[in-house]
Amino acid sequence: MAFGLSSGIHFCTANGQLTFLDANTGRYLALSGPGGQAFRKLMAAEPLGDADVNALMTLEASGILTSSAAADGTLAPTTAPQAQSDLSVEVPGFHPLLMTLALMAQIRMRRDVKHMTLAQVLARIAQRRNRFPRRLVPKVCIRVAAAAFNNTRMLMTTQDQCLSWSLAMLHYLMDLGIAATLILGVRRTPWSAHAWVQQGEAVLSDNLDHVTHYTPILVV
Fold first, then answer.
1. Which of 4, 11, 112, 155 has the most CB atoms around its CB within 10 Å?
2. Domain boundary assignment for the chain
């Protein structure tokens, strides 16, 4: 019998603090004390004492962990490509059609996130990805598409809308045949959660200086 993460649970170590995200509820949890110590031992594959096992069973009861014969006991924090650049620096031209598509995607997503859990949102992305054609898109086309989306900031507020903004950009890019990655990140001091879109090491929906303050906790 071994422990593993329950379905929908993601975690990272942000500023030295174990932090969990439950995609089923959209809630974040910081873990310390005996539970945190036992979880770190589990991550490092160190021997567990009775107190550690009891602490892990408490985490199982809370829904963070699951124990089964199928679990391999391997726990690894979320990782993402380290952001090295952003495409918000270069904003070439004015593209009314792309901006219209971007605005429509944002309106739809702001409506949808009010009625869907994070897990449902992620499931929708997975469904689209299964049908998504794999093709190479020239970097200049990605830059133009990202710039057009980011230029809509002058028309729609983005304050406290980072998740719906990022989800809208992700679906907008898929509509254009451009593959990208949604990243949710956290920081501990002061506490904050954020969402952005990357393609490889390039940030598409934000600026590099901002996202580097966050540790990825979920990557889609």
1. 11
2. 2-68, 85-219
